[in-house]
Automatic annotation (TrEMBL):
<dbReference type="Pfam" id="PF07396">
    <property type="entry name" value="Porin_O_P"/>
</dbReference>
<keyword id="KW-0732">Signal</keyword>
<protein>
    <submittedName>
        <fullName>Porin</fullName>
    </submittedName>
</protein>
<dbReference type="InterPro" id="IPR023614">
    <property type="entry name" value="Porin_dom_sf"/>
</dbReference>
<dbReference type="InterPro" id="IPR010870">
    <property type="entry name" value="Porin_O/P"/>
</dbReference>
<feature type="signal peptide">
    <location>
        <begin position="1"/>
        <end position="40"/>
    </location>
</feature>
Length: 427
């Protein structure tokens, strides 16, 4: 979840620094376009993106992308941040299917003036309920983090996402069973710190991550419509982390709008087990939706001869209501009638509200964190309005207030008031 401001770079810089990303892009295209001509028979273009496929679907190439431009306005004096406009995400997605059972996904991001690889992995489908994934991808822990950034309730994901690992490199077995009602994932990863992503790892220990999510009445025609949208699950990660190569192995934390919250004192290092527990649920019924999540992140830390097990936690619960009557869902809102003022149709409108709270372990103070500089806890309240003129476009405005407490630094800190806006296009 950590973001850094960067300056823009030239095209020549991107080519020289990220030739590997472009090479992967070329490889995907050559794999598909190099297939026998008999397999490339149809080209499709619709609201779901662009696709080249044979009639049987054994060979496919899908092309998609996301563009999100944000405006962040801080209403007051918040140290370390400023109001700004920025290109949050500029992503290109390629996914290819080879002989039905094998697929490749590649997603690059050119937002914030950087060229990065977000996803790069291979899937192998053993059967209808079991697949193997290998490469760099989202770890199966947080409910909101696994949700597409195009479909999240507000511009920023909630605080529980800051207490789980984000993208990492590893191997994962996953699938659906029990009539598609139970979704499961279990994998081994390098072990990214809270709220961060990794491309590699400097230490031998790895993280074991597992998640199960059940929708008891999914695809049950006899069940009430009020039950089919209920889902609940649990994500767990267990591993060992120690400092290495100048890195403490520990994360620092910021508010949703990038002002400092909590960081460890100098000399504090990871020194043993790291465990995360993430219960989660959502419920969708007609135009109404609710999503809730709790994240516990526990770390063994050391400073000099002192050791401690610290547990940080966060939770959130949010609700949404599609004013125009379309169905709410984890995958987002699709307007029944696209924007057409001549025909008197305006797309879909959605109201949303969220409350969330974070809590850093009180035992971290004062030995491992400075109470005169760090915050112990805080609560955020937010409300938002989204307009979907067509399926692929969204305009969003969110107002948020965050208060702080628990330490001298928090008591001296004013509440943070922000107004964020986003214009996004995805296909």
């Amino acid at each position: 979840m950590r973001l850094t401001d960067t300056s823009t770079c030239s095209c020549s810089d991107l080519l020289s620094q990220h030739g590997g990303a472009l090479a992967v892009l070329g490889l995907l295209l050559s794999l598909l376009l190099g297939a026998p001509a008999a397999h490339a028979q149809s080209v499709f273009a619709d609201a779901g993106g662009f696709r080249i496929a044979d009639d049987d679907g054994d060979y496919q190439l899908r092309i998609g992308g996301d563009l999100q431009t944000d405006a962040r306005m801080l209403l007051g004096d918040t140290p370390g941040t400023s109001s700004s406009f920025f290109l949050r995400r500029a992503r290109v997605r390629l996914s290819a299917t080879l002989q039905r059972r094998f697929s490749i996904r590649f997603m690059s991001d050119f937002g914030r003036g950087q060229a990065t690889i977000q996803d790069a992995y291979i899937d192998f489908r053993f059967g209808s309920g079991l697949s193997l994934r290998a490469g760099r991808f989202s770890t199966p822990l947080g409910l909101e983090f696994l949700q597409s950034s195009n479909a999240t309730m507000h511009v920023e994901r909630g605080y529980p996402t800051a207490f789980v690992s984000n993208r990492d490199v590893g191997f994962q077995l996953y699938g659906r069973t029990l009539g598609q009602r139970l979704q499961y994932s279990v994998g081994v990863f390098n072990g990214a710190p809270d709220g961060t992503s990794l491309d590699g790892d400097a230490t031998p220990p790895k993280d074991l991550i597992a998640r199960a999510f059940i929708e008891p009445w999914r695809n049950n025609r006899d069940a009430s419509d009020w039950l089919r949208g209920l889902g609940a699950g649990l994500g767990v990660s267990v591993g060992t982390e120690r400092s290495a190569n100048g890195s403490s192995g520990l994360a620092s934390y910021r508010t949703l709008h990038r002002s400092a919250l909590f960081s460890y004192r100098g000399g504090v290092e990871a020194d043993g087990r790291r465990m995360r527990l993430v219960p989660q649920a959502y419920y969708y019924a007609g135009p109404f939706g609710v999503i809730g999540e709790y994240a516990l992140s526990q770390h063994d830390v050391q400073r000099g001869d002192n050791t401690e097990t610290l547990a940080h936690r966060a939770w959130q619960i949010g609700g949404s209501w599609v004013l125009t009557g379309e169905s709410a869902s984890y995958g987002g809102v699709s307007p029944e009638n696209s924007y057409d003022p001549e025909a008197g149709t305006w797309g879909a409108f959605e109201l949303s509200a969220k409350v969330q709270r974070f809590q850093f372990d009180e035992d971290a103070f004062p030995q491992y964190a400075d109470p005169e500089a760090q915050v112990e806890n805080g609560t955020s309240l937010a409300a938002g309005l989204s307009w979907y003129p067509v399926r692929n476009v969204r305009f969003m405005t969110v107002a948020e207030r965050t208060t702080f407490g628990g330490t001298e630094a928090a008591n001296a800190r004013d509440a943070e008031h922000t107004l964020t806006m986003r214009v996004q296009l995805s296909y």
